[in-house]
Amino acid sequence: LGRDFRYFRSLPSTNTHIKKLDADDVEPGMVVLTDNQTGGRGQYDRNWISEAGQNLTFSMVFKPQTSDGFHTLTLACALALVEQVESISEEPCTKIKWPNDVLVNGKKVAGLLTEAVFIGNRPARLVIGIGLNVNQQEYAAQLSEKATSLQIEMEKQIAREELLSNLLARIEHKYRLWHQNQAKLLIHINRKIDGYGQWVGLKVNGAMKQDSYKLLGINETGRLLLLNHEGGIESFSHEQIRIVT
Ligand code: BTN
């Protein structure tokens, strides 16, 4: 990962940049990084706003042999992020917020955006973009209750170059595990999912459910498994539900 490493001082979006490249110009393992992402995109058509020169905004190219399990690959990257944060300091509580966020002390520190590029109806490559808030010190009022950075939570400045190279090594390791031993990977991911093993509230298609559900973790397709009060197990995709912990 990162043997073909492309740095841009400024770019609208690292995900969009890779998606627009000619297939011949894209090798698996390519990493595109920018220090000033001006039109960052998030899930559900949201924006990803990141202060220039303070954080990490980058995207990676994967060409997995199988097109199954794309969702679990995103979560494998989220797990690498969690472990990387924990390697700096065990003190803050770091969790995966299913399906694509990383929380530190209950606030969002990173988001992942996975997009498949299709040739015909075959996914030709997978672009996984990560926005990690590193040294940003302030967030706009409406964001500050939900968003944070490593610097805010750990009260220290973090060297971004070292952080990125360690993180890429961890992601590479998880990618290997994703190919070799999904079952083991899922155990590690599930342990880090916010609310795992707990009774949580659910919003299904926007409407809050009255009953709580016990969060059992994800299965090999990335769907979330939940136990209801009657003892039945229900599975949901990320388009359908939001967890309320
Ligand atoms: C989310 O939280 O909804 C996902 C945010 C993903 C942001 C990253 S930053 C690098 C890459 N390029 C983008 O335009 N978005 C992703």
- Helix percent reads 25-40%
Q: Which series of helices and strands comes N to C?
A: EHEEHEEEEHHHEEEEEE
Which small molecules are bound?
A: biotin
Strand order in space, largest sheet = 1-2-3-7-6-5-4
pLDDT average, as an integer?
94
Tell me how many strands there are.
13
Which outline best applies?
globular
Segments where pLDDT lies below 50 for 5+ residues?
none
Strand content bin: 25-35%
List keywords for this structure.
245 residues, alpha+beta, BirA Bifunctional Protein, domain 2, SH3 type barrels, 2 domains, six-stranded antiparallel beta sheet, 30% strand, binds biotin
Question: Can you give a write-up of this model?
Answer:
This protein has five helices and 13 strands. By secondary structure, the chain is α+β, with helices and mostly antiparallel strands. The chain folds into two domains: about 190 residues, Bira Bifunctional Protein, Domain 2 (BirA Bifunctional Protein, domain 2), CATH 3.30.930; about 45 residues, SH3 type barrels. The chain is globular and about 55 Å long. The model has no long low-confidence stretch (mean pLDDT about 95). Biotin binds next to helix 1, strand 3, strand 6 and strand 7.
